Amino acid sequence: MQPTLIELQRQITALAPMQKPTDQQGFVTLGAERADAALGSALARGALHEMFAAQAADAAALTGFCAGLAQCISGDAGRIVWIRQGFSETEAGPLFMPGLAALGLDPAHIIHVRARRPEDGLRAALEAVRCAALGAVLIELWGMPRSLDLTATRRLALAAEASGTTPLLMRLAAEPGPSVAQTRWQVAAAPSRALAANAPGRPAFDITLLRNRAGASGQRWHLEWDHERKRFRHAATVSGSVAAVPDKRPVPAPVERLARTG
């Protein structure tokens, strides 16, 4: 990890003289009116936000939602550091830069760090969050590592408050635990509406706000990502046929998703 951390420090040092644009300070709107209203009109920058995949199969949805959120936070000119634990990359696959470009992100503005252990990822994350020239830092960890405790989240939150850089903690195969995160979200894949000529629809997400220190929590929304405007928006209900109940076979129980607010 040491050579990787040294290289990350070198790249961060090169960014240090840069200043955030004035519209990058304070808060960021998602673009979805009801979600923004629940957050008190906007999502706080310079604060720790925690995102959970509802199930293992929702890893891609979590990646897409966090990529869009990082774009909202950073803007077109902002730099993003994306830190991924090696096991997470093994299980969920490597980042696909053409896919991120299709979401509206510029791959040239993404600094990708691959950490072998969770401790290494958290150490690199702390270095990155301390850099005020960055827009967002995505920290993708797998499971329930012991190193990701209340103290670790407090360090990230304090560094974010001091620099104004926003860390997004991405959790795969994990459950909510002690954390000082400003908000906590659950992300799942959702059906999308086909575009003209039956073209594939925009990326859609089933989002639940599990925690909101600035207001009420528990709200659930169906959002889609508009890569042209680089904003989320509320998606219309997708109509369609419903699968028939299997004949002479038991109906499987619904899979429970995260419900604890931590």
Task: Characterise this structure.
This protein has 7 helices and 11 strands. The protein has helices at about 1-15, 35-40, 60-75, 85-90, 95-100, 120-130, 150-165, and strands at about 25-30, 45, 50-55, 80-85, 110-115, 135-140, 165-170, 185-190, 205-210, 220-225, 230-235. Helix 1 (about 1-15) packs parallel to helix 6 and helix 6 runs parallel beside helix 7 (about 150-165). Helix content is about 30%, strand content about 25%. By secondary structure, it is α/β, with parallel strands linked by helices. The longest helix has 16 residues, at about 60-75. It has one domain (about 30-190, about 200-235): 3-Layer(aba) Sandwich (Rossmann fold). The strands form 2 sheets. A 9-stranded mixed β-sheet has the order 5-4-6-7-3-8-9-10-11, sandwiched between helices. This is DNA repair protein. It comes from Oceaniradius stylonematis.
Jot down its keywords:
Rossmann fold, two-stranded antiparallel sheet, 9-stranded mixed sheet, 262 residues, alpha/beta
